[in-house]
Write a structure and sequence with these properties.
single chain; alpha/beta; seven-stranded parallel β-sheet; two-stranded parallel sheet; 11 helices; 13 strands; globular; binds nicotinamide-adenine-dinucleotide; binds UDP-4-deoxy-4-formamido-beta-L-arabinopyranose
Length: 343
């Protein structure tokens, strides 16, 4: 091992994991990526290598497979893990809850127990703004009470946060940070990595880019009768490269031994609410195109509005979202064009 520290990135071939691997390498870390490619392609690891000019250690591993995971712990000397590996489709989790509890919780418990067993201290967990549900006060701070989960997916995030908190409390030498991501969007400016949903996208921005590419006929705006300025829902859309950099800041904090408590939570968002209509008109403007869209009924389960209070991440992690919505929506379209071979 060189003087640089090594970070294990589970789910590192995925959307957020691949962008985070790039930023970790840019910051001087070595990364080891493991992924079972259930929702990604190994091309994204190639993209990470192309962007950074560094060869990346990558193994196809299912984090639910304890024996296989042990081989990774035996082979590599990392002291931190960022655990992205999970299923993330809210609707699918309602139809197939066991699939979600099995994958998201077993894989996380495997990671935490091996980190403890091997004396590897630092665990960074991908949590989600979904834990806040329909919050009473906005913006939400990390101390805003979590609402009962409305989907098995959301429940896996709440349970995993609790597992991490309890393990950090009980076991000396186990440190945890949960990052609660708001709505990650956009792609790397190189257009070498980005989000590649399988099938019909559930999330707004991939649906928009696929509509712009002619793959989807028309975007449905789910509800324009909410109690918001233009009637459409408000969200906090965070650029994926900014989000990736928040992971680097969190790993820096853990590896430098700067944590004040051995379990910490940070909201990772911009702090700015953006409506569905604002997002889609901004997309049209910056990319100079017209999107076919229509207003439809509300989507069941959607909260009217949620956005982050980000001062804890700003002050404690020294991290702040930097990209404008315009830049991010340009990068999302550049990535879609690259994938679809559109000039
Ligand atoms: P993604 O599906 O692109 O990435 C997840 C990766 O994990 C995929 O490459 C998948 O193949 C892999 N994976 C899944 N189960 C695995 C297993 N058992 N073993 C090994 N690899 C496995 O999703 P993403 O958007 O990059 O999300 C990353 C993490 O962030 C997830 O935990 C997700 O729940 C969380 N998150 C995502 C969002 C979002 O909107 N994208 C928001 C909040 C939190
Ligand atoms: C954003 C807004 C929709 C699609 C989800 C998960 C959450 C987290 C992030 C993982 C909403 C509207 C959407 C469309 C639309 N993921 N919309 N037409 O629902 O805020 O959060 O992803 O942790 O857990 O629930 O994101 O991108 O689906 O929707 O009008 O075709 O866009 O109603 O207001 P959401 P989203």
């Amino acid at each position: 091992m060189s003087g640089k520290r090594t970070v294990l990135v589970s789910g590192g071939a995925g959307y957020i994991g691949s962008h985070t691997a790039v930023e970790l390498i840019n910051a001087g870390y070595n990364v080891v990526i493991i992924d079972n490619l259930s929702n990604s392609e190994s091309d994204s690891v190639t993209g990470v290598e192309q962007i950074t000019g560094k060869k990346v250690d990558f193994e196809v591993v299912d984090t639910c497979n304890t024996e296989r995971l042990k081989q990774v712990f035996d082979r590599y000397e990392f002291d931190s893990v960022i655990h992205f590996a999970a299923y993330k489709a809210v609707g699918e989790s309602m139809a197939e809850p066991l699939k979600y509890y099995q994958n998201n919780l077993v894989s996380f418990m495997n990671i935490v127990s091996l980190m403890k067993e091997y004396g590897r201290p630092n665990i960074l967990f991908s949590s989600s703004a979904t834990v806040y549900g329909d919050a009473e006060h906005l913006p939400v701070t990390e101390d805003t009470p979590r609402q009962p989960a409305t989907s098995p997916y959301g429940n896996t995030k709440q349970i995993a946060e609790d597992i991490l908190r309890d393990c950090c409390r009980a076991y000396a030498g186990v440190n945890g940070i949960a990052l609660r991501y708001f709505n990650p969007i956009g792609a790397h400016p190189s257009a070498l990595i980005g989000e590649l949903p399988r099938g019909v996208p559930n999330n707004l921005v991939p649906f928009i880019t696929q509509t712009a590419a002619g793959i989807r006929e028309c975007l449905s705006v789910f509800g324009n009768d909410y109690d918001t300025p233009d009637g459409t829902c408000l969200r906090d859309y965070i650029d994926v490269v900014d989000l990736a950099k928040a992971h680097v800041a969190a790993v820096d904090r853990m590896t430098a031994g700067k944590m004040e408590e051995n379990y910490e939570i940070f909201n990772i968002g911009t702090g700015r609410p953006v409506s569905v209509l604002e997002l889609l008109t901004t997309f049209e403007k910056v990319n100079d195109l017209k999107l076919p869209y229509r207003m439809t009924d509300r989507r069941p389960g959607d909260v009217p509005a949620v956005w982050a209070e980000t001062s804890r991440a700003n002050e404690v992690l020294g991290w702040k979202a930097e990209k404008t919505l315009e830049e991010t929506l340009r990068s999302a379209w550049e990535w879609e064009k690259k994938v679809r071979n559109i000039k």
